[in-house]
Design brief:
Layout (H helix, E strand, L loop, with lengths): L16 H12 L3 H21 L4 E9 L17 H8 L2 H10 L6 H5 L2 E4 L6 E8 L2 H52 L7 H28 L6 E5 L12 H25 L7 H8 L3 E4 L16 H15 L2 H6 L1 E5 L6 H16 L3 E6 L40 E4 L5 E5 L7 H5 L2 H7 L7 E6 L8 H9 L1 E6 L6 H13 L3 E7 L80 H7 L1
Parallel strand pairs: 5-12, 6-10, 6-11, 7-9, 7-10, 11-12
Antiparallel strand pairs: 1-3, 1-4, 2-3, 8-9
């Protein structure tokens, strides 16, 4: 197999990274049903959550925690508020029990505490009480109950501390009061001016001063405000539930559904063995995609073998590209095959390419090498005034076994001109007929100047007929439906063709489909293609023959522009075709190539 030059497009990577990403995204969009199912699933989940989830209301109250300004033990400020400790105290069991008692349900303190959340805004001495409940009134009532329980607990702690301090001071004052009373009684028994009287009077003055200090301390403690804090925001019933509503849940479900759909499409893409894009065909065959046949209306296939309109222009575009491909121009022999399945589309491609070559002014010959179920001669209109070659063969049609001797039928290709057809015929030994000297001599007709031979053979992976012809024809054109052929099949076709000494010129893609499983009939015996053994295949009658679709004489046909000789268009139409990997013929070297063959 001739290698492409290093600077040719075939030697370069088929895609740049942005193009590869776009190609992969387009491949994901092939599975639109999975993406739509993911979106529907996401919307259904969001709607279900929005309609069935219990609405939760959150009531919020805020409290400023007060700081004591006097210390009964040291005389200064000792209790700066530790907000972390206060937040833990607010959610403690003691506060919850107080709240439960205030709400009249002391046995459900733990259950009530589950809906409470206490936070401390940074750099503040504020506690925020948020209570969640199914009812807005209940949420506000319980939030306020916890606030009051916390403040009450804090005030009770302060009162207990003050009471303890007062009790300690009073216990210190009691002995002093007794001594004061004893000194006062003693002074009543002593004479004024005596030394004993003066000593007793001095002791009484000291005791009285100590009692005064203790009384002042007790007065300071009992005068402290023991309120635990001040409510700056009272909880009120919220007007709307918290959390996402139904519209937001639907939007989230839509986004999640797109993600699920794309993930499902990606998984399907990873495990999809079929060809996903023309780039896959190029990478599997190591050959360019020469054309992509236009997609017909749904349910419609090709109505006539000789195409019209856009389809005819696409066939002409492929023929022009082949004519200017260096590898094909050296030999001018073309084998048209399919990887698997039926032969209908390769048959149409072979006929139209032969007609396009005839339109270029070449001596075109179409060889139907399908010797198992030949039908081509029944589907084409013979040139007027010319009798088929098989009509003069000894024994009549179908009885002679010396195919292809004497079998050449001129075919009217309408405005494209006339080309010769060597129709297929059922023979007893297909491999021997295909490899016979007569078949090789027929294919060598392409060695004549200005001649071209197009050979139609059965599917490569069903029969070995195409491989038997490869070393004689050399150039192979694969016609396949990307939605039905597997990448492994194309790789196998390349290995077989290259191993047999042939050259893959490229591929033509179509999307008509055969209506059958592309692998149906694999391993069956000779004599029929898949879908034709039971007589129920598409477009075939009970005799197993394809219905004649040749146009009625005199019936108008779609206009097809006839290319004048020598006026070959070097920029063929068809914007949906991939042309990478073509080896352009140097016109100056054409004579040298012909001289060697």
């Amino acid at each position: 197999m001739k290698e492409a030059p290093a600077g040719s497009p075939a030697a370069a990577a088929p895609y740049d990274e942005p193009d590869l990403l776009r190609d992969q995204f387009r491949q994901l969009l092939r599975y639109r049903l999975l993406i739509v199912c993911g979106i529907v699933l996401g919307l259904a989940g969001g709607g279900w959550l929005g309609l069935t989830a219990n609405e939760t209301y959150v009531a919020t109250a805020e409290v400023t925690v007060r700081t004591p300004t006097a210390d009964p033990f040291a005389g200064g400020t000792v209790d700066r508020v530790a907000m972390g400790s206060e937040r833990r105290t607010a959610v403690s069991d003691i506060v919850a029990q107080r709240a439960a008692e205030a709400l009249g349900d002391p046995d459900r303190a733990q259950q009530l505490k589950r809906g409470l959340q206490v936070t401390n805004p940074p750099n503040t001495e504020v506690l925020r009480f948020a209570y969640s409940a199914d009812d807005p009134q209940l949420a506000a009532e319980r939030a306020n109950a916890f606030v009051q329980a916390y403040l009450g607990n804090r005030q009770a702690d302060a009162d207990a501390t003050i009471a303890a301090g007062v009790a300690s001071l009073e216990s210190q004052r009691a002995p002093q009061l007794e001594r004061r009373d004893a000194l006062e009684d003693e002074l009543g028994t002593l004479f004024e001016g005596s030394a004993a009287y003066d000593n007793a009077l001095a002791d009484l003055s000291g005791v009285t001063s100590a009692i005064s200090d203790l009384n002042a301390a007790i007065a300071r403690l009992t005068s402290l405000d023991t309120t635990g804090g001040r409510v700056i925001t009272e909880a009120t019933p919220p007007g709307s539930p918290s959390g996402p509503g139904l519209p937001l849940l639907l939007a989230l479900g839509y986004v999640v559904g797109i993600g699920i759909g794309l993930l499902a499409a990606w998984v399907r893409l990873v495990f999809d063995p079929t060809v996903r894009s023309p780039g896959d065909v190029t990478r599997a065959l190591h050959a360019p995609v020469l054309g992509v046949l236009p997609r017909p209306a749904r349910g419609d296939g090709p109505e006539e073998l000789l195409a019209q309109g856009r389809l005819a222009e696409e066939y002409r575009s492929v023929a022009f590209r082949l004519a200017y491909d260096e590898a094909f121009a050296q030999r001018r022999r073309l084998l048209v095959v399919a990887p698997r399945g039926s032969i209908e589309t390769p048959l149409a491609a072979a006929v139209n390419l032969t007609a396009a070559f005839a339109e270029m002014g070449m001596d075109a010959l179409l060889v139907e090498a399908d010797l198992r179920t030949p039908t081509l001669t029944e589907q084409l209109r013979h040139a007027d005034g010319v009798r088929p070659g098989w009509a003069s063969s000894p024994g009549g049609r179908g009885e002679s076994t010396d195919w292809p001797s004497g079998l050449r039928v001129p075919i009217d290709a309408e405005e494209s001109g006339i080309f010769d057809l060597v129709p297929g015929r059922r023979v007893r030994n297909v491999p021997r007929a295909l490899t016979s000297p007569a078949a090789s001599q027929l294919i060598n007709h392409a060695d004549a100047k200005g001649a071209v031979v197009v050979v139609l053979a059965p599917a490569v992976l069903l029969y070995a007929d195409a491989i038997a012809l490869t070393d004689r024809v050399d150039g192979v054109l694969v016609v396949c439906d990307p939605s039905e052929v597997h990448r492994d099949d194309l790789t196998r076709v390349r290995e077989l063709v290259v191993g047999a000494g042939g050259l893959l010129l490229g591929a033509v893609l179509h999307s008509w489909g055969s209506g059958t499983d592309p692998r149906e009939g694999e391993g069956e015996g000779d004599g029929a293609r898949p879908g034709e053994r039971t007589g129920e295949a598409e477009g075939r009658d009970r005799d197993g023959r394809a219905p004649a679709v040749r146009p009625v004489p005199g019936q108008p046909h779609g206009a097809r522009h006839r290319q004048p000789p020598g006026g070959v268009n070097r920029e063929p139409q068809g914007s949906n075709s991939e042309t990478m990997g073509l080896r352009i013929l140097d016109p100056g070297a054409l004579g040298d190539h012909e001289g060697h063959h």
